[in-house]
Design brief:
The chain has 269 residues and is of the alpha/beta class. The chain has helices at 30-40, 53-56, 61-70, 79-87, 91-100, 117-127, 148-161, 187-196, 209-219, 233-240, 254-257, 263-267; strands spanning 21-25, 46-49, 74-77, 105-108, 132-137, 163-168, 202-205, 225-228. It has one domain: TIM Barrel (Alpha-Beta Barrel). An 8-stranded parallel beta sheet has the order 3-2-1-8-7-6-5-4. Helix 9 (209-219) links the parallel strand 7 and strand 8 (225-228).
């Protein structure tokens, strides 16, 4: 049964270029993946097999990937695993792994290790010949601050080198990169980025509900959001559509926004 409501923001259908939702699989079982796909396949564009979980769950890895792909969800290995190969000088082995797993998407990051940016660009250029590349910008380490102009320059050059989208780093904790230690958004940095780079080219890591609400209010229902927990994919879609309290009035016409509750209205009752 389809429930229809007016004034819901338009959401593009898959495969889409904007309004992307990337779920972070931190080690789901095969049965959990089957249940997730049954419930959320139409709402999920990409699944990141977080950090190095692919190594730990190698017994079920290929089965899980096939389930996601059959449901038309693009799967890729977490950037930390790429870095684990890169720091050991095993990039060719990483390419072989992607081919063996039949993955059409890959992430390149440098958030856990120091990597000269030119070397990262060379990895992006090489890998983009084999798969769709998403590259992550920003450090996973607390206390490592990247000047705003460097953030922007990195994003621009990675996109021009071959990245399909760039990911703004936050970790699964949402307390580094584009966020402060308390999880609040680094508004100045984000403002500088969005003024110089098309927002549709960026996937903002937003693991907490407050961060998701903040970006939806800033950039609209079709902002690209990543590192979404398995159980938060449906709640996020409700936020995008104005079907939760935090965004309830954001997409309604002006005459209905007048019904926003405030203390004065209740005092008149």
């Amino acid at each position: 049964m389809e429930i229809k409501l007016p004034y819901l923001p338009e959401r593009p259908v898959k495969p889409r270029e904007k309004g992307l939702t990337m779920m972070m699989d931190k080690g789901l079982s095969v049965k959990e993946v089957e249940n997730f796909v049954d419930n959320c396949a139409e709402l999920t564009d990409m699944v990141k097999l977080g950090f190095g979980t692919a190594v730990v769950t190698d017994r079920t890895l290929e089965t899980k990937i096939k389930i996601y792909q059959k449901a038309k969800i693009r799967v890729y290995l977490g950037g930390t695993l790429f870095e684990a190969f890169a720091i050991r000088g095993m990039f060719d082995n990483y390419l072989n792994l992607i081919e063996k797993l039949n993955l059409d998407m890959a992430e390149i990051s440098d958030g856990s290790m120091y990597m000269p940016h030119q070397q990262k660009l060379e990895y992006i250029s090489r890998l983009s010949k084999y798969a769709t590349v998403v590259s992550e910008v920003g450090s996973k380490q607390k206390g490592v601050e990247i000047p705003d102009n460097i953030w922007i320059e990195m994003m621009k050059t990675e996109l021009s080198t071959g990245s399909w989208k760039v990911i703004a780093e936050a970790r699964e904790s949402g307390t580094v990169g584009i966020y402060h230690n308390d999880g609040s958004a680094n508004e100045e940095l984000i403002s500088h980025i969005t003024k110089q780079i098309e927002p549709e080219k960026i996937i903002w890591e937003a693991p907490t509900g407050k961060q998701q609400v903040w970006f939806i209010k800033l950039l609209g229902a079709n902002v690209n959001l990543g590192n979404i927990a398995t159980n938060d994919v449906i709640p996020l879609e409700c936020l995008r559509l104005g079907l939760r309290g935090d965004t309830f009035f954001d997409f309604l016409p002006a005459d209905l926004k007048k019904l926003r509750p405030d203390s004065e209205k209740y005092q008149k009752i």
